[in-house]
Amino acid sequence: MLAICKDLEKTIEEVDARLSLLNETDLNHKPSLQKWSKKEILGHLIDSANNNLNRFIRGQYLDEPHIVYDQDQWVSIQNYQAMPLENVQQLWKIANLQIVNVLKNMPQKSFEKKCDTGKEQKELHTLSWLANDYLAHLHHHLNQIFSHS
Q1: Whole domain around residue 110: which residue ranges?
Q2: What pLDDT, on the 0 to 100 scale, is given for residue 110?
Q3: Of the candidates 23, 67, 138, 146, which lies 20 to 30 Å from 40 by C-alpha distance?
Q4: Is it the case that residue 37 has pLDDT exceeding 80?
Q5: Which region, left, alpha or beta, applies to residue 127 given φ > 0 means left and ψ of -120 to 50 means alpha?
Q6: Mean pLDDT computed over 129-138
Q7: Model pLDDT for residues 60-115, shown as the tens digit of each residue
């Protein structure tokens, strides 16, 4: 878990610096009505962080909590597109710093506890697996934000 925390801390620092260099017009551009802008992708990463934080916390003391979310609804309802970049950036940073805090303080025995992330049927994953998956998901979407920027 320490490697995940170190990677996440490094990513937070790098992304925070890189976002400040981006043009808000580019971040607000929507390739089509059905696709998210880069700012909305960052908003989606906030939602992902919040839901995974919930999994990392509740998964330690509940037996297989069921935690899912509708990513399109979350992005739409929170209207990241209309928010100032600075606010979206701060939310993303703080949510990820809190994930680092929770993972660093998670007892070793909790890594193998499970959380249900299935929408249609039960999908159990260990908190360790979810942490690794979260990091991969984060990097995937950050590549979308920073490609061609």
Answers
A1: 2-146
A2: 98
A3: 67
A4: yes
A5: alpha
A6: 98
A7: 999 999 999 999 999 999 999 999 999 999 999 999 999 999 999 999 999 999 99
What's the total number of domains in the chain? 1
pTM of full prediction above 0.90: yes
> Within the chain, where are the H helices?
2-19, 24-28, 38-61, 71-78, 85-105, 127-146
pLDDT band of 148, cuts 50, 70, 90: low
Check which CATH number belongs to the domain holding 23 and give it. Answer: 1.20.120.450
Distances (CA, A) of 121 to 72, 111, 113, 137: 20, 23, 19, 21
Asked whether 106 and 56 are in contact (CB, 8 A), the reply is yes
DSSP label of 21: T
Of 96, 93, 7, 103, the residue nearest 56 (C-alpha): 103
Q: What's the Cα-to-Cα distance from 94 to each of 7, 13, 35, 76, rounded to whole Å?
A: 16, 11, 26, 21
In sequence order, the 6+-apart residues with CB closer than 8 A to the CB of 51 are 67, 68, 69
